[in-house]
Amino acid sequence: MNKTLRCIQIGVGGWGQHWCKVVLPRLQTLGLVQVVAAVDINPEVLPRAREQLGLAEHQLYTDAAEALAEHPADFVTIVVPPASHEQMVGLAVAHKLHILSEKPIADTMEGCCRIYHKVRRAGLKMAVTMTHRFDQDKESLRRRIASGEYGRLDYIVGRNTWDCRRFGQWGKFRYRIPDPLLIEGTVHHFDIMRALAASNAKTVYARTWNPPWSEFSGDAQGLILVEMENGVKVMYEGAKANASTLNEWCEDYWRAECDHATLELDQRRLRVIRGNRGRNAIIEELPLEQQPAWVNSWLAEMFAEWLLGGPEPPNSLEDNIQCAALLFAAISSAHTGEIVDVQAFLANALAATA
Asked: Which is deepest, 56, 112, 176, 322, by most CB within 10 Å?
């Protein structure tokens, strides 16, 4: 199918600027997409989108409903706060438009499930941009594990720890919401776990807390155990109120213990380790994979190709509902102190919203 897709961008401020400056111009250069309108409730940011995307004044809107009604399109990109995702998806479905949305699907499990049902019933395609899973370093590790060169995967250890205990160091709104570590941080790492293990989650047990020196209102620290359906185990440490930052965004620590070797990713350096590291270990630095684009630019390209008849991308709604289930099951575990069956949790949520 040889066609240029028409797109309406919803949200051009904040992270939407990355879409307007990097992601969408690249798709336009590739000839895959033409942006026909841009929307933001803040009129002050719209002139930037006009310049970045080559739009005219009549293609700029503060009301998404007006933009969708006045400009025929093939899909929308949604880059607005999670609490508004369900409303924007509803508008897209009403206009029979496919959807590419920033994470998460929605801000509650119920909202995620309602979107899931609505999109599937409409026969539309939707994907969710889980940026960090599709970064160069994590994808390089995933491909090494999947190659089978190092034997069968046994378990995974992950770490993302920060010193941002003071109000405003990590965006002001995160200090006021419940479960900031899980909702705003670990959501990405749950998706990475699933990719590295090549499996959906079976069970999750999460312990989260907020230390006395933290200025977060909700829990900022967590230790989490996940068992995947294929038997792989994951141990994860996440913290936003530590005394030091060991592995910040895009510089995660992941260690994969395989039958024949240890694969270690630390601050974007990938290595394979064999033998006793203290004395006679064989440590080999591994190059990261190379390709034209990563993260959102890569995901947007795969989504456009999907709409044009290509394969379903790995971040489709069908896949990402599993990430949402793991996230909200972990929150349930953290609140109840119990191990949660993730697949039963998801099945119950889908049934309750059908």
From this structure: 112
